[in-house]
Amino acid sequence: MTLLSLDQSTSKTGFGVFCDGKLQSSGLICPPKSVEGINDRIYYMYKEIRKLIVKYNPDSIVFEDTTLNKIQNVEVMKWLCRLQGFVLCLCHEFNIQHVLLYPTTWRSVLGFLVGKDKKREAQKAFAIEYVNKTHNMTLGKSDDDQAEAVAIGDAFLKMKNNA
To answer: At CA 137, angle to CA 143 and CA 27, rounded to 5?
Structure first.
C-alpha cells in the first residue's frame, strides 16, 4: 500500500510518501516568488500535488482537515478550504481513498500535547523532534510542514494498525 500524507498550506505544503508502512520520501512544495497571488499559489499547489499523485500512485491520501483557530483569520481559513477542495477533487479524479484528520486527532494519536493552551510553535517543534527521532532525519525549524506531513502519515498508519 502506498500512502501520500500532506500538511497543506498556500505558502508551503509538506508531504510524505509511505510504502507498506515505511517512509520512502518526504519534502516540501514551495511556490517560487514569481507566483504571487493567492489564487495562483493555490493552483500551483494543486499542480504540484497532482504531480506527486502521478509519480507515486498512492492507494490513499491522508491530510490535515481545516480548522479555524485563534491564530487564523477567516480569510486564511477560506484559502485553506479552497486548497483542500482541490485535493479532494484530485482524490476523486484518481479514485484514491482519502482521510482528513483534525490536528488534535493526529497529534494525540502520536502522544503530542494537545489543547488550546498549547502554542503552535511548540507543536511544530515537537513534530520536528518526533520525525527526526522516529525516521532518523535532520529536519530544521523551516521544515515544520514536512515534519507535520510525515507525522500525519505516521498517525494514520498507527490508527489503521490499531483498528
So the answer is: 45
Q: What is the pLDDT of residues 103-137, one digit of tens each?
A: 889 999 998 876 665 677 888 888 999 999 999 99
Cβ within 8 Å of residue 120, ≥6 positions away: 69, 71
Which candidate, 33, 55, 30, places its Cα nearest to that of 45? 30
Domain segments of the chain as ranges = 2-162
Count of CB atoms situated within 10 Å of the CB of 141: 10
* Fold exhibited by the domain 2-162: Nucleotidyltransferase; domain 5 (3.30.420)
**Can you name the residues that pair with 61 across neighbouring β-strands?**
4, 98
List, in order, residues 6 or more apart from 150 with CB less than 8 Å away: 5, 14, 16, 23, 26, 131, 135, 137
